[in-house]
């Protein structure tokens, strides 16, 4: 006679097999996309990455993938999905959010409770030049002291699109904010993360800011 435990065991095995098959298919799509630079079924990949976020995060870290691999992969997929939406938003209705850790240690910027750090373009880091570039596009830039500041900036500016720079954790948080607001955006990963004097590819930011309809 089949016991309740046998039935539960069968159900669990079935669920694990289904998850395994879904993961296998997603892995093939991801590998194909990475190899050909053509993303296929991004919606499906994103669904799998979101649905199995914590197990996949633990698994990839245990397998020796770089820290935040799943966040970065998910960010790349979201960037792909959002590309068209972002391209339709005029530059002056987009905002750029930069983490404060990109500044130099002896940055003379002061902190405004409304707008975050106010860069005086002292030339010690590349943020000043980037702000000049954004001024030319009539696009507002904010150097934010922490994730909680994002809400304030959004309330203040009501952007139609957000481009953000951050570590993998901030990119994940940022993508959840975009989903909630239902606005397109683009996440740019730091080249070197940490708490101070982090690094980013400024050309990558400029390229993202300039995305527009062909
Ligand atoms: S350029 Fe701006 S952000 Fe960079 S160190 Fe100077 S004041 Fe700070």
Write a structural description.
The chain is of the alpha/beta class and 214 residues long. Helix content is 53%, strand content 13%. It folds into 2 domains: 4-78, no CATH class; 88-209, Rossmann fold. The strands form 2 sheets. A 4-stranded parallel sheet has the order 4-1-5-6, sandwiched between helices. Strands 2-3 form a two-stranded antiparallel ribbon. A hairpin with a 3-residue loop joins strand 2 and strand 3 (116-118). Helix 2 (42-51) crosses helix 4 and helix 4 (69-87) crosses helix 7 (168-181). The longest helix is centred in the N-terminal third of the chain and has 33 residues, at 4-36. The mean pLDDT is 91. It binds iron/sulfur cluster (SF4). Iron/sulfur cluster binds at residues 103-104, 107-109, 119-122, 124-125, 127-128.
What is the strand and helix layout of this fold?
Elements: H1 4-36, H2 42-51, H3 53-62, H4 69-87, E1 94-99, E2 110-112, E3 116-118, H5 127-137, E4 140-144, H6 149-157, E5 161-166, H7 168-181, E6 185-189, H8 202-209
Parallel strand pairs: 1-4, 1-5, 5-6
Antiparallel strand pairs: 2-3
Iron/sulfur cluster binds at residues 103-104, 107-109, 119-122, 124-125, 127-128.
Index terms:
single chain, 214 residues, alpha/beta, Rossmann fold, 2 domains, 4-stranded parallel β-sheet, two-stranded antiparallel ribbon, 6 strands, 13% strand, binds iron/sulfur cluster
What is the subunit organization of this protein? single chain
Order of helices and strands: HHHHEEEHEHEHEH
The CATH C-level class name of the largest domain: Alpha Beta
CATH topology of the largest domain: Rossmann fold
The rounded Rg comes to: 20 Å
Name the ligand types: iron/sulfur cluster
Number of helices: 8
Q: What percentage of the residues does DSSP assign to strands (E)?
A: 5-15%
Query: SS-based structural class?
Result: alpha/beta
Total number of beta strands: 6
């Amino acid at each position: 006679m089949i016991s309740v435990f046998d039935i539960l065991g069968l159900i669990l095995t079935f669920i694990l097999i289904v998850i395994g098959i879904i993961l296998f298919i997603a892995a093939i799509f991801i590998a194909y996309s990475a190899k050909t630079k053509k993303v296929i079924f991004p919606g499906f990949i994103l669904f799998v990455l979101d649905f199995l976020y914590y197990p996949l995060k633990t698994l990839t870290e245990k397998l020796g993938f770089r820290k935040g691999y799943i966040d970065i992969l998910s960010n790349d997929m979201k960037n792909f999905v959002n590309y068209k939406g972002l391209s339709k938003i005029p530059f002056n209705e987009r905002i750029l959010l930069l983490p404060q850790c990109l500044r130099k240690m002896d940055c003379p910027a002061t902190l405004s409770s409304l707008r975050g750090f106010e860069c005086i373009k002292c030339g010690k880091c590349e943020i000043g030049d980037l702000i000049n570039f954004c001024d030319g596009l009539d696009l507002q830039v904010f150097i934010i002291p922490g994730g909680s500041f994002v809400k304030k900036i959004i309330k203040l500016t009501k952007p139609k699109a957000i481009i953000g720079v951050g570590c993998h954790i901030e990119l994940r948080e940022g993508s959840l904010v975009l989903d909630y607001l239902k606005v397109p955006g683009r996440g740019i990963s730091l080249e070197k993360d940490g708490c101070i004097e982090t690094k980013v590819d400024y050309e990558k930011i400029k390229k993202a800011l300039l995305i527009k309809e062909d």
